């Protein structure tokens, strides 16, 4: 790799880690386009596999910081993660059998749709004390399991950690506040990313040199993201709208370029 490609990979890893640390998801949806259009990875499938490995490691690093701040609902995360891993394993196999260019078009359209949905105001009343127990299982499990399965299927198919879907999915299923959904989502991002990464690695679709550079940049970005999140915590709505606009813009670019 040349110096420019190395710097591009490090900076891309920093961006991924920053967003994961800041909003608990979204870094993964940017990883694939960053690898293809900035780092220069030629194969969409190799970009997906490489992104999955790097995002998993960066998500684990970010999870440590959120867990220390007691912002993780572990039982809800476990059920969502197990359901998601089943969906991700199936989605990864379907994704590898799909034409690479068509995959990018669908990926771009999904980014646009998700970005637009992020701009809508949430109307669900928050439940900060929500907890999966014997008493609450009858109400929570019928929501956690199918939503987790659907998110996992999309995550595996497109090779993403799924954080941008997991956060609203957890809020929809449990009504937990956004800060808890962000921390909890990282458990699921790590689990889904590991499932997708393993599938692609076994197929030889991971660029390990690029992966190492992404992880190095991602660790620094994660530290910065968590610190910035604490400073800008009261302006989370502004951050969400800004991130949604970025997701829509990148999705439009990917779709137009692939078509």
From TrEMBL:
Signal peptide start and end residues: none
Taxonomy, superkingdom: Bacteria
Gene Ontology annotations for the cellular component aspect, listed alphabetically: plasma membrane
Pfam families: TauE
Subcellular location: Cell membrane; Membrane
Transmembrane segments: 47-65, 103-119, 140-166, 178-203, 210-232, 238-256
Keyword Cell membrane: yes
Membrane topology listed for this record: Multi-pass membrane protein
Membrane recorded as keyword: yes
Family annotation (InterPro entries): TM_pro_TauE-like (IPR002781), TSUP/Inactive_protease-like (IPR051598)
Keywords: Cell membrane, Membrane, Transmembrane, Transmembrane helix
Family note: Belongs to the 4-toluene sulfonate uptake permease (TSUP) (TC 2.A.102) family.
Protein name in UniProt: Probable membrane transporter protein
């Amino acid at each position: 790799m040349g110096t420019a490609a190395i710097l591009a990979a490090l900076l891309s890893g920093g961006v991924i880690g920053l967003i994961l640390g800041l909003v608990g998801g979204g870094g993964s949806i940017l990883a694939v386009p960053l690898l293809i259009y900035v780092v220069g990875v030629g194969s969409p499938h190799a970009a997906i596999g490489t992104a999955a490995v790097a995002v998993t490691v960066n998500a684990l690093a970010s999870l440590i910081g959120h867990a220390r701040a007691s912002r993780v609902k572990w039982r809800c995360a476990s059920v969502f993660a197990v359901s998601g891993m089943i969906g991700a394993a199936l989605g990864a196999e379907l994704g590898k059998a799909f034409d690479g260019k068509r995959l990018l078009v669908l990926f771009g359209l999904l980014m646009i749709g998700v970005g637009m949905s992020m701009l809508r105001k949430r109307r669900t009343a928050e439940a900060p004390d929500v907890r999966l127990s014997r008493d609450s299982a009858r109400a929570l499990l019928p929501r956690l399991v199918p939503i987790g399965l659907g998110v996992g299927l999309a995550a595996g198919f497109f090779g993403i950690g799924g954080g941008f879907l997991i956060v609203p999915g957890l809020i929809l299923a449990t009504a937990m506040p956004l800060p808890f959904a962000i921390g909890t989502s990282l458990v699921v991002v790590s689990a889904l990313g590991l499932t997708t990464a393993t599938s692609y690695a076994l197929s030889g679709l991971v660029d390990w040199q690029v992966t190492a550079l992404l992880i190095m940049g991602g660790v620094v970005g994660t530290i910065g993201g968590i610190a910035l999140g604490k400073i800008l915590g009261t302006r989370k709505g502004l951050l969400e709208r800004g991130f949604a606009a970025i997701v829509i813009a990148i999705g439009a670019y990917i779709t137009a370029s692939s078509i």
